[in-house]
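Complex record, two chains
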Amino acid sequence: MSKFEKLEVDIRKEQGTSAARRTRLRDRVPAILYHSGAEATPLAMDKKSFNKALKTGQMIFEIIVEKKSQFVLLKEVQYHPVTDEVMHVDFQKVREDEKISLEVAVRGTGESQGVKLGGILVQLLNAVTIKCKPSEIPEFLEIDVTDMEMNTNLFVKDIVLPEDVEMITVEDIAVMSVQEPKEEKEEEEALDDIDEEGADGDEESSGDTSEESNNESDGEKK
Amino acid sequence: MLEPKKIKYRKVHRGNRKGMAKGGTEVSFGSYGLKAMESGWVTARQIEATRISISRRVRKLGRMWIRIFPDKPITAKPMETRMGKGKGSPEYWVANVRPGRILFEVEGIPKDVAQEAFRIAGNKLAIKTKLVAKRGLHED
């Protein structure tokens, strides 16, 4: 287990919203490390090095806490809704002999027959949950879309799994779909509708104002 | 244009637009999304204009999703009316948008086409927007 990205982390002494905010101001990312039966450890690490490690697409990292190295699984990453910066990270301890369940991305390979005929390939499921040993975690799972025709689906059961990897996600969920494109008539109709509505709206509003202005003037006279 | 089929109350308060989006901040269905960078009311007309603008570029190549719905009625008083005499009548519908909200998503088109589609589409809206890709998107 030496091919994994290394991250130098510190133990956070202060916890809570304000403390986490102060940590982020120092260009560090607050994190937490947990494992069943053990007490959780609050951590902090360098933002740049974590972002670099995240870009590799790996799910397992080697973290060095107080000069002790251990392997952890990236369980969850929280992002800022506007800036997309990493706000907080959850790590779970892993043991080499212990099987873990995690989410892995699914990617389609090849060009489907339906797409060649003008269909649209839509990915309905982005990730699936699998169970395997930490050393056997695939970066992503592939699903072959070459034989897909128009209006057909590929399901979780069609994903080819590497050896010793167990699928946790229900098998009859659709992953990929080739759909027929919608006709352009709709767009033209919509355009006509909006023009008509616009014209009607203008007329209505102008009508209303003239009537009401008349009423008002009447009232003033009275 | 989009509007609710059935409503409980015809007129509602203005509410507030403080803070950031709580949900709908990730690209969930397509590959690329248009994210709001400011808060504001997006009207049903703006949504329709944006939808048409995007669908012109997406055409038969891809698919599009609208992630917001105008469920808030806005009232207005008629022109040249004196103040008072009660609240105005509902005139149009808006979606309350907070920064971070994904407004539209597209799938099946390359990044440059999506970028151009969202650039033009963003001009139809009264708020600042930006293009975002789905997290972990594998680009060939």
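Note: Helices of chain A lie at 17-25, 47-55, 113-116, 185-221.
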